[in-house]
Amino acid sequence: MVEKRRLSKCTVMMDLAIPYLDGRLSVAQRTAVEEHLQSCVACRREFRIFEALRRLSDAKEKGAVDPVFFESPVPVDLDGVSGKGPTLSTVLEMLSAVAVSTESLEEKRRAMIAHVHWFLTEARAFLQSRPVIRAGKEWLKLEKQLARLLRRILEHPIATGLRPLMAHQADAYASRGLIFQLQGDVRQAERYLSHSVVILWALKQPEALQTQRFLGELKFYEGDAAAAEELFIGALEDPRTPPREQAILMRNLGNTAYVRGRVDESRHFLEQAMALSATLGESELPARDLMNLSALDFHHGDTELAIRHTREAIRLLNTSADVHLLGQLHANLGTFLAMTGTPDDAQCHWERAIHCFQASYWTRDVVQVRRNMALNAYESGLHDHARSILAAALTETSGTDALSVQLQLLAARIDRKHRRFESATSLLDTAETLAQSLNESLLLDAVRLEQAFLALIRQSIDRAAAILETTSAVKKRRPIGSPSIFDIENEAIIASLFEQTGRTVDADRCRKRLHRMIRTFRKMHPGQDLPEEIPV
Fold first, then answer.
1. CA distance 423 to 414
2. Distance (Å) of CA 197 to CA 146, 175, 201, 219, 223
3. How far, in Å, are 3, 485, 523, 525 from residue 528 at the CA level?
4. How far is CA 434 from CA 222, 366, 393, 429, 529, in A?
5. φ, ψ for residue 282 (rounded to 5)?
6. Would you place residue 2 in the very low, low, confident or very high pLDDT band (cuts 50, 70, 90)?
7. C-alpha pair distances (Å), 249 with each of 209, 232, 260
8. Contact 1, 24 (CB under 8 A)
9. In this structure, is the dihedral angle defined by the CA atoms of residues 152, 158, 162 and 163, taken in order, positive or negative?
10. For residue 255, which of 303, 220, 280, 284 has the smallest C-alpha distance?
């Protein structure tokens, strides 16, 4: 009943989206919409798409061209200039030919923008084809070079009427890029945001700062932390950047510094971001800063400090309606508490996280929390309870991502321990196929180790040896770090496989590593027992 009411409310909010963006709602209606958007991530995403489409429409009314027009071959007339490539003279010749044509003003504008789009696309492809590292500072250097080239074009007398038009075109690129980002098409989003940033740099427009941050976040998501860091630093150092944007940029720089191994610098940026966020009178920004800081604490072994920071973030959000962020914090707190040997408290916070995620329609996050709950139950010896949690999670997952492989792997291990071999085999075969299609080598190795041990239990030693040879997990050993019961069981499986297939030297080496892992585990979890036999 609650879900129906919420769905009905979301439907009403979608009907109010256009009047809201047009400013045609009463104060009471506008307040109701904004309160709903704070608590509903799905509606917030849809409103952002509406807003981006409205910006795109405004830009088109001012003469810009919707970038999707360029998805078909750009109508560029290269007669007489073909073969010259994306040079300045080529583009100026094109623009000159358009200027003296007998076409209408609207057609001339469209043709000129098409020529500039052609130049941006071809010049970027040409610059990136050179034998340099196309990431980090090198990538940013190429983008800045492209902006300088575009500035020279726009400063030429033949492009006099094009300069003001390109500011609107940059807005069209940014709007379409944000729409692609919200729809999950990262490649197209980066392409159009890059075009927007280069145009705004060429025009020296302050609007470049926020678009630059969006582009940096995309680069970070794609794994290019060095390029993201350069974009964030450039935006942060600009004196026109407002305080709220500075706080977000500092948090982003904390994340990039951590990914690049500069832990102290990461903490410094996150603390700076938190201090600035606290002066803005908001609860969401400092809560996000504390969440990132707690993750940093946790990964460096200070679980108690991570718990304190997360509790403080939850306290800050008590007056906020950002349900999804609250769910993330409860999920993190559950994980931290599980590591300190308080599973009941962890379970309580995980259940709160599930409630928050279900309220904001984030099914994948619900499944991730269920996986953590199942793993916690498994490592506490509650196999039947863990298996029932996994059964629920497997019905909720998409069945097409890495999380699905993790769920199937854990379910297969429980089934194997309880001698449900057919079920375990079926789960592992599905997991193997999916891990291969996703190119997830670490998960594929884990699945094959489980398959090999299952074959060993069923007296198929030759098959176990054959599977063992297909995995790189036994060749490329990761540091011991903070081993879980699951990690220890994996090591014991490898040792057993080596021993049963006649590789005694490798088996001895594995046993020594296994003993180091057990000592580390007992030191980190003095109150938690290991299974009597590993693996069972």
1. 10
2. 11, 12, 6, 13, 20
3. 40, 10, 10, 5
4. 21, 21, 17, 9, 33
5. -110, 160
6. very low
7. 10, 6, 16
8. no
9. positive
10. 220
Tokens of 225: 């932390």
Provide the token pair at 394: 């497997």
Best CA proximity match to 271, nearest among 285, 249, 250, 252: 250
Token pair for 39: 């608590």
Q: How far is CA 179 from the centre of its chain?
A: 16
3-state secondary structure 368-437: HHHHHHHHHHHHCCCHHHHHHHHHHHHHHCCCCCHHHHHHHHHHHHHHHHCCCHHHHHHHHHHHHHHHHH
- Residue bearing the bigger pLDDT, 388 or 127: 388
Average pLDDT value over all residues in the chain: 79
Token pair of 182 as six digits: 């919200």
Q: Pick from 239, 289, 284: which is nearest to 266 by CA?
A: 289
User: Measured between alpha carbons, how far is 484 from 492 in angstroms, rounded to an integer?
Assistant: 12
3-state helix, strand, coil in the chain (%, to 5): 75, 0, 25
Contacts 24+ apart (CB under 8 A), 86-94: 86/118, 86/119, 86/122, 86/123, 86/126, 88/149, 88/152, 88/153, 90/119, 91/115, 91/116, 91/118, 91/119, 91/153, 92/153, 92/156, 92/158, 92/159
- Look up the pTM and report it: 0.65
Report the chain's C-alpha Rg in angstroms: 28
Side chain identity at 175, as an amino acid letter? S
